[in-house]
């Protein structure tokens, strides 16, 4: 029986960029190593694209947009191609899942069941949606006809992070391509492989050359060049708040391109004493913080538990922690894999040290794991006796670290939950419908979960308040980012 390790041994990663329908190396001929966080082994060399390559890719995207090879296809024609694109993604699902796991360390079971399936579903959904969106006629006087239509923005730059490389790419390219735009995608230098493979699959599905281009490289080189480019009409970014601010500044410094950002989070998960199902709350709280090794912007990293049930809650939580011990990402039974690279490992361990220094009480984990493998693993970690002034309660860790805070008054819990520059996700667990509604309204977050966490569907918008970004990914609202509204006023009679 062929194992995932057997398949991994046969992988020959192609790190060349994809511009104008062809695989190419950077014009500078510079490259960088792509290392797997599973065991530190070299997967291959990747093109280190810079401003010269950005100019070439943007020119290819602009030419494709202007000649209409994609933009002027009917919505029904674009739909057929995108649905085929999604079908081919699933056909190549095992290959894509393996690349995703080797590249960023997530368990293969989730690369298959979550990342591949969700990314394909996203592309398919936007393809199906585009010929079902109607334009408008304004209710003007009888002697005029005012048409309100959506048009593609033009050239869209998309910069996506390393934690969900394939899915975040799909969230951007799905609506952008469906609307008729041309796209230049820059994946993270930490995890470029699936994005590059997606470009080849898109071409096979019928997306014309030049319409979808992928440039691997570093943020301060290729990413900055895209944000500053005078011929990029729109930029969509998912990543840290710090880099998101820089991109918005660059957009303003250049051509005032619209900039859409989905940024960091420090999500609050509030469990009240009247929680209707404490076991479900515990399972969701623990499962959600350790899913994807805690490398999720919406991870519920701040757990507020009402004082009267805190001891019982933590007893149940600690019993579940061993289930999330880091394992071999290429083992189908593993549920928590490797941290993406040595830099992020150092960051996570630094926050654990800060928790100790600030006086939080370590209940579980706190150490590096599987050091003999040469990979980057951290034990599932829980700190108790945390207060909102501590570093681990204020800053986004992006690792498997849970901070537990207690409360006696839910209004005080909400006040603490909102005392953060972020506003991505939040949750409240209570059997009191009025309390649930009032708390949900009071929480300043783009998504508030009630008696569950991580509820998800492509039909539901994803994004945040405050410094968690602007605009929304997913749902029909994503088209607002990649289309212009045009009014055509016609005098009648």
Characterization of the model:
This protein has 493 residues and is α/β, with parallel strands linked by helices. It folds into 2 domains: 4-263 and 469-487, Aldehyde Dehydrogenase, Chain A, domain 1 (3-Layer(aba) Sandwich); 268-450, 3-Layer(aba) Sandwich (Aldehyde Dehydrogenase, Chain A, domain 2). Helix content is 39%, strand content 20%. The protein has helices at 4-9, 51-67, 75-91, 93-104, 108-129, 165-178, 193-205, 219-228, 241-253, 278-290, 307-320, 342-357, 391-394, 410-418, 433-442, 479-482; strands at residues 17-19, 22-24, 31-35, 42-47, 136-137, 144-152, 155-159, 182-186, 212-214, 234-238, 258-262, 268-271, 302-306, 361-364, 368-369, 377-378, 381-384, 401-407, 425-429, 447-450, 483-491. It has a 7-stranded mixed β-sheet with strand order 14-17-18-13-12-19-20, with helices on both faces. Strands 9-8-7-10-11 form a 5-stranded parallel β-sheet, sandwiched between helices. Helix 2 runs parallel beside helix 8 (219-228) and helix 5 (108-129) packs parallel to helix 6. It is globular. One of its GO terms (molecular function) is aldehyde dehydrogenase [NAD(P)+] activity.
